[in-house]
């Protein structure tokens, strides 16, 4: 076993990267729809239905979610690596053009973008915000959801995208 120097953020990122995660697109809307690729997402509770996402306090999405009071989490499928890369690119177009590469519909309850063709999606109302170091932990109550039971998953492991088929 190798010991890691926790003073190096690169080394710590590499350690975190050894945990395989799904890839999501977190969306919200203000004047225009906004999105960001994220893997800091988890279910919290079935009753009531709650999830959480973690967003850097320096990210534009942080303010948008707080102002909007709602967000969606779209779980990306194996064929959506380009979507994940696009919304992770800090140089991507902003404003109306940010969503040009995906088809989406407004969520039924909040109007936040829900990406068509996602493996699964959850539309949420923001219920709590907790401090989490350089991130905030956004707790959301699930208002609506859907899934594609036949899709393959897009994962992130060891710093690269991976694909996995259901057993």
TrEMBL record:
Flavin reductase like domain residues: 16-163
Molecular-function GO terms, alphabetical: FMN binding; riboflavin reductase (NADPH) activity
Gene3D superfamilies attached to this UniProt entry: Electron Transport, Fmn-binding Protein, Chain A
Keyword Oxidoreductase: yes
InterPro entries recorded: Flavin_Rdtase-like_dom, NADH-dep_flavin_reductase, Split_barrel_FMN-bd
Keyword set, alphabetical order: Oxidoreductase
Family designation: Belongs to the non-flavoprotein flavin reductase family.
Name this protein carries in UniProt: Flavin reductase
């Amino acid at each position: 076993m190798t010991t890691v120097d926790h003073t190096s953020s690169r080394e710590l990122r590499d350690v975190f990267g050894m945990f395989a995660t799904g890839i999501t697109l977190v969306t919200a809307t203000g004047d225009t729809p906004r999105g960001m690729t994220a893997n800091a997402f988890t279910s919290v509770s079935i009753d009531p239905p709650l999830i959480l996402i973690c967003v850097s306090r320096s990210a534009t999405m942080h303010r948008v979610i707080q102002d909007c009071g709602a967000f969606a989490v779209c779980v990306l499928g194996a064929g959506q690596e380009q979507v994940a890369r696009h919304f992770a690119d800090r140089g991507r177009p902003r404003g109306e053009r940010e969503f040009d590469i995906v088809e989406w519909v407004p969520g039924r309850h909040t109007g936040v973008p829900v990406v068509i063709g996602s493996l699964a999606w959850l539309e949420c109302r923001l219920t709590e915000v907790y401090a989490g170091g350089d991130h905030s932990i956004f707790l959301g109550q699930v208002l609506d959801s859907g899934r594609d039971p036949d899709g393959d998953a897009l994962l992130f492991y060891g710093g690269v995208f991976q694909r996995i088929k259901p057993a």
